[in-house]
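Support case: user asked for a sample of complex input and structure output to validate their parser. Sending the pair below.
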Amino acid sequence: MLIDLVSHYPWWIIALVLLIAELLAPGFFMIWISLAAALVGLIVLLLPTLGLLGQALLFVVLALASCYGYWGYVRPHMDRRSDQPLLNRRGEQLIGQRYVLDSAIVNGRGKARVGDSLWLVEGPDLPVGSTVEVLGVAGTTLRVQSSVG
Amino acid sequence: MTQIISLLLIALAIVFLLKALRVVPQGYEWTVEQFGRYTHTLSPGLSILVPIMQSIGRKINMMEQVLPVPSQDVITRDNAVVKVDGVVFYQVLDAAKAAYEVSNLEQAILALVMTNIRTVLGSMDLDESLSKRDVINAQLLRVVDEATHPWGLKCNRIEIKDITPPRDLVDAMAQQMKAERVKRANILEAEGFRQAAVLKAEGDKQAQILSAEGKREASFRDAEARERLAEAEAKATAMVSEAIRKGDINAINYFVATKYIDALKAMVGAPNQKIMLLPMEATGILGSLAGIAELAKSSIERQQEVKVETAQVRRPGNTPPQA
C-alpha cells in the first residue's frame, strides 16, 4: 500500500487536492503548499531514488520556503495597493476633515457633530460651535485640534 | 516506520502552514490570542501567525450592520399600550473592544435599545409618539451611542419602524378623524347655505332698491312732465290772454261757443240716449251765438274801414275831407 507512495504520483495528488481546497475554502492559504508539493513531484520524477523521508523533508522545506518567501519577498514587491485603503475604517475616513463641536471640550473631552451623529472628541478645551480638525482616531474617539477658518 | 513518520511530517507541514498563513477577508478583523491572551488584531489581507503559540480569537465584522429590534409592548405617558419595533445601524470601530469588552454584543445592544425605547416613549403621549419619530430616534441614538462607546462601537442610526396602537384605539382614532371631517363638511355646508341666503337677500334688496329708484325716477319725470305741461298751459294762457289783450274779447267768445256747440252735438248724438241733458243756462248758447254775431259785425265794420282807407290812399294830392 505504501509502496505506491514512493513515487511522484502522490505529490501530484496532494498538489491538486490542495489547489482544489484553496479554490473552495477562502481564508486559508494553500496555493503555495500546493506549489511545493508539485515541485517535490517534479524532483521525484527526475530523481526516483529519493526515499520517502527525504521527499517529506524536501516538501516541508519547500513549503515553508515558498510560503515565507512569498510573505517576505514577493508580496511586498507585487502587493497591489488598495484603491480604497480606508474601507471599513470609519474613524480613519474622518482624518483631515473639519467638524463643528456639538458640546464644548471640557477637560479634553467633548462631542462633535459628524453627519447626523455625534462623535466623542479629544483635544484642547474649546467652546461649543467652534470648528475642529480631526488629526487622528483612537477607537471611537477622534483626536482633534482647533481649526481656524 | 520511516514511511509513517514521513507521512506525519508531510501532514504536519501542511497543517502548520494552514495555521500559520491566514487570509482575513475585507470587512473583517480578526483578533489574535497568544496562549489565550489578546495580543493584536489582524487587518484584511494575508497574515502570518506562529502556530501553537498564537491562534485566531474572534472574527469581528467591521461592516456597518443592521440589527432588527423585535416588537415589544410599551406604555405611553397617557397609558396607551403600543407595539414598537425598530432597527439599529451600528459599526464596530475597535475590534478588540467589541471582542472582549462585552460578552454578547448584539444582545447587549438590543437590551439597551429596547429599554431606552421604553424610557423615551414612556415620557411621551401617544399622539406625540406617533408624530415625533425624529425626536424619539435622536434621543435613542444619543443614549445608545454613548453607552456603546466602551464596546468600541459607533451607533450611526436608530430608527423606530412601527408604532402600532391596539386595534380598538386605532378604530377610535379613525372615528375621531372621520367625525372631525364630517364636522368640517357640515360646517362648510352650513356656511354655503348661509352665504347663499345672504347673497339672495342681497339680490332682493338690490332689486327692490332698483325698482324704488325706478319709481322715484319715473315720478320725478311725471312731475316734470306735469310741470312742463302746466308751463305750456300757462304759456298758452298767457299767449291767449295776450292775444285777447291785443284783440277783441269776442274772439274768445267764438272759441268757447264752438266748443259749447261741439259738446252739445256730442250729447245729442250719443247712442241709447233716452234723456237729453241740457246745460242749465241753455240761453248761454244763444248768448254765445250772439257773441259770434257780434264778432261778425265788428269784423265787417273793420273791413269797411280798411276799404275807405285804401280809397283815400289811391288819390294823391287830395286833401283829406274836412270833418
